[in-house]
Amino acid sequence: MLTLFDTDRKYSPNISHSVICPLALSAFLVTLLCSCGIHAYRLRRAKQLYHQGQLLEDQGKTEDAYKKFQASLSLARKAHYRPGIAHNLNELAIIKTSKGQYEEARRLLREALKIYKELDMKPQVSKVLNNVAITYLRQGDIKDTLLTYQKLLKWDNSIGNKMGQLVVLYNTAQIYERYLNQPCNAKACYEKARLLAISLRRRKLAKTIELKIERLLNCK
Fold this sequence. Notes:
This protein is an all-alpha fold and about 220 residues long.
C-alpha cells in the first residue's frame, strides 16, 4: 500500500492508496499534543509535590508530607517517571518506619530498590539498603540488621563508595557494642572504619573512632 509519505516509490494506478482526511489528521494532532502536554504536566507536578513533601518533612509535618509524597507517587506512575516513583517510595517508607510499620516500609523499599538497580542509580541503592537495615534495627531484629549491613558493605565496596563503607562499619560496630555486648567484634569494625576515615582525610572522625577503640580495652 502506498502511504502518504512514500516519496521514493512511483505512483502506480494498480496500487491501492488512501487519502487521510484533513479533519481526522487535525484531530490526531490535537490528541497527540494534548497527550504530550498532560505528560509534561504530570512530570512537572510530580517533582513539585515531591519537593514540597521534603520541605514539610524537614519541618516535622509528617502527615502533610506523606500526602504530598503519595500524590507525587501517583503522578509519577502515570507519567512512567521511574526515578520519581522510587524517590517517593523511599520517602513514604521512611515515614512508615517512623510509625512502626516496618513490614510495609520494607515492601516499599524493595520496590524502590528494584527500580534503582534497574536504572543503575548506585548511590540511591546504598541509601535504600541503609533504610532497610534501619527498619530491622527499629524492630529489634539485630540478626537481619547485620545481614543487611553486610549486603550494604559489599555493595558500597563494589562501587567504590568509601564513605558509605565507613558509615556501615561504624554502625555495625555500634550494634556489636550496644546491642550484642561483643566488644571485640565492635573494635574490629571501628578499626576498619578509622582507616577509611584517615584515607578520606576525615581527621576529626578518625579521632572520634580512635577514642571509641581505646574504650574497648578487653580486646587486643
